[in-house]
Write a structure and sequence with these properties.
352 residues; alpha+beta; 5-stranded mixed β-sheet; 4-stranded antiparallel β-sheet; 16 strands; 24% helix; Sec_Metabolite_Acyltrans; acyltransferase activity, transferring groups other than amino-acyl groups; CAT-like_dom_sf
Length: 352
């Protein structure tokens, strides 16, 4: 196989028993430093993106008859080959501090010099696929969270600065002041959304770019307006907000230029500016159910504990396609109970 793997240590997590940790080492690429865009830099203060697909066990063929350790080695080998072609995904965030007189600056870049990636083989005794992809009414948050690594870490926690003697220094966004509170009317309803520029803004981003390409937008109305005008009216309000935020390349370019002049990190607290807030992320444009490793179509798509807060909704394409959407909604228990009791909402929902 291309690349190599080696066994690491074992450990335990709630619901999940780590069997082994494999170090996946792809064939080293030519050394390269990738400078991050303002889209990437403003996201350093957020949690790691944690997305996963639930796939069935191999259902036939030679691989189906192999022990688990052989199947794991097969997947790790495939990951090594993939990282050999897409080496930036195994790169490391590096911080460089520069000073010119009284002017000091910090740059964060992605350094690609053939670093390794970790592949975790774990077991979840007593957990079934139905526990993860079952009824929409209740999926234990700690169960799904235990399936993901790097819980509680912001992206900038991975950034370090090489120093003389081989040491490193952490660069944490938590030392940067957060946003000021946003005032809202008592009956205000706000929907915050990060709008993807891919496919919406001509010539942006550039071909081959795989980093972030999003601009924020916000639609605000009163609760009375939403109830009185209906969900169709609310949907059109959101549609206009998305179109205004991403419709013109010049406007998107100006937002990037403005960030360079006045850099501001993104915080999940930005979504908490109103009494009733719904924030959406992810996108139905991603072919999440096309991740077939030869074992069949994924059963479900789930995300981890990162960037979760009351009112956060992750949007995926529906498993059946045809324009259907899959929603992963994070709500307080009492709010969720009222939502599933809403007949108008449930008429548009198909339970898994």
């Amino acid at each position: 196989m291309q690349g190599s793997t080696s066994n690491g240590t074992t450990g335990r997590r709630r619901h999940v028993r780590v069997v082994s940790r494999l170090v996946v080492r792809p064939d080293p690429p030519a050394p390269e430093t990738i400078h991050l865009t303002p889209w990437d830099l403003r996201m350093l203060s957020l949690d790691y993106i944690q997305k996963g697909v639930l796939i069935p066990k191999p259902g036939g063929g030679e691989l189906h008859r192999q022990p688990a350790v052989v199947i794991v080695e097969h997947l790790a080998s495939a990951l090594a080959r993939a990282l050999g072609r897409f080496h930036p995904f195994a790169g490391r965030l590096v911080v460089d501090e520069r000073a010119a007189g009284d002017d000091k600056s910090i740059t964060v870049s992605l350094r690609c010099t053939g670093e390794v990636a970790e592949f975790v083989h774990a077991a979840a005794p007593g957990v079934t696929a139905a526990n993860i992809a079952g009824s929409m009414h209740y999926i234990p948050r700690d169960l799904v969270a235990s399936l993901f690594a790097l819980n509680g870490l912001a992206r900038a926690d991975a950034a370090s600065e090489s120093e003389n003697g081989g040491g490193s220094r952490r660069c944490s966004p938590r030392s940067v002041p957060g946003p000021a509170p946003v005032a809202a009317a008592a009956d205000g309803v706000c929907a915050a959304h990060r709008v993807g520029c891919r496919g919406r803004v001509k010539s942006l981003p550039l071909a081959g770019y795989v980093g972030n390409a999003v601009v924020p937008c916000r639609a605000t109305a009163t609760a009375g307006e939403v109830v009185g005008n209906g969900l169709g009216w609310a949907a059109r309000l959101l549609n206009r907000a998305v179109a205004a935020a991403s419709g013109e390349a010049a406007l998107v370019g100006e937002s990037v230029t403005r960030w360079v002049r006045e850099p501001r990190l993104a915080y999940n607290a930005d979504l908490l500016g109103g009494v009733a807030v719904v924030g959406t992320g992810s996108s139905p444009r991603f072919d999440v159910y096309g991740n077939d490793f030869g074992w069949g179509k994924p059963v479900a798509v789930r995300s981890g504990a990162g960037n979760k807060l009351d009112g956060k909704t992750s949007v995926f394409e529906g498993r059946g396609g045809g324009g259907a959407l899959g929603l992963e909604v994070c709500l307080a228990p009492e709010t969720l109970a009222r939502l599933v009791a809403d007949g108008e909402f449930m008429d548009a929902v198909t339970e898994p």
